[in-house]
Design a protein that fits this description.
This protein is of the alpha+beta class. It contains four helices and four strands. Strand 3 and strand 4 form a beta hairpin. Helix 1 crosses helix 3.
Length: about 120
């Protein structure tokens, strides 16, 4: 399987990423860039601030951090499932970092190299 770096592929990847954001948070991203290089897909996303997140930040900052962490784990799980199921991609790892103050998330998807070359 070979992942072709094309506008169509990037559009499909963007759609999947945004659909997951809508499922989990109720709305998509405000900015999303997808790059494909060798066996890595990178999503650079600026998310919208959730009113619930703002409320937790003021009342229970430790709980907000825990919720952000758990939501990031869930995001990675769903992204892995969707990329494997819908695009047939062989994934080795999904790495995600989210910066709550700026709402930026960087997600790197590492594809299994041996299966890409077959």
């Amino acid at each position: 399987m070979t992942l072709v770096d094309s506008n169509e592929t990037r559009k499909k990847l963007s759609a999947i990423y945004n659909e997951i954001a809508k499922e989990l948070f109720g709305f998509g991203t405000t900015l999303l860039r997808v790059t494909i290089e060798n066996q890595m897909i990178t999503f650079q996303a600026k998310h919208r601030r959730s009113p619930r997140s703002q409320a937790l930040e003021g009342e229970a900052p430790a709980l907000k951090l825990e919720v952000d962490f758990r939501m990031s784990l869930l995001y990675k799980k769903r992204l892995r499932e969707r990329l494997e199921e819908e695009m047939g991609l062989p994934l080795e790892a999904v790495l995600r970092d989210y910066d709550a103050p700026t709402q930026w998330a960087i997600t790197n998807v590492i594809l299994t190299e041996s299966e890409l070359n077959t």
